[in-house]
Amino acid sequence: MSVWVIIPVKPLVRAKSRLSPLLAPEQRMQLAENLLRHVIATARSVPEIAGTLVISRDSKALAIARESGAHTVQESGTPELNNALMRATSVVRGWRSAAVLVLPADLPLLQPHDVRGVLDLGQDENTVVIATDERGDGTNALLIRPPGLIPYAYGPGSFQRHMALAREAGATVRVYQSEQLMLDIDMPDDLENYYRISGDGAHLLSPPEKTPER
Known about the structure:
This protein is an alpha/beta fold. It is built from seven helices and seven strands, in the order E-H-E-H-E-H-E-H-E-E-H-E-H-H. The chain has helices at residues 25-44, 59-67, 81-94, 112-121, 158-168, 179-182, 188-198, and strands at 3-9, 49-56, 71-74, 99-102, 127-132, 139-145, 172-175. The longest helix is centred in the first third of the chain and has 20 residues, at 25-44. The model has no long low-confidence stretch (mean pLDDT 91).
């Protein structure tokens, strides 16, 4: 049964504004771009994923997504994450997706085994799998089988809201725990934690290397 990954992306030029004490605007934009490339590449490396869809109102983000092999949907109307995700879900449901996995575009330590771990917990019908962040507040991965089983409730406190919505829908609720998946980069201490864990975060602030032409 096919699973599609959905990655919502804010305009890159305004990304990571809360990192302004540490990074210049150009660095924040480069960071957001490199994180997006990493999440797309990781999702696409997992054979069990049927496809990856990026939804954004940012033409540059959509161009990066297509360059990275993802499908894209142009967000329109009033910017609102949950509405954008519902639109993206409607698109992949039309492509006969059996489940959706929503991943933020800022997970620097995301690895294929984390994606597979979430999928393994979400194989049964009427199942919601949730992974939270380091603060136990946000939602860093959300698998919904079937798509549309629960509405999206992103924003502060989304982890508990998604848990409650899944229970109200009568879904089986499973929590995936992973230190790697818990780390997103939003606040200055998140970036410092990444430097501490990885030992070197310089590549996140540098343009990606181009593959030599053959």
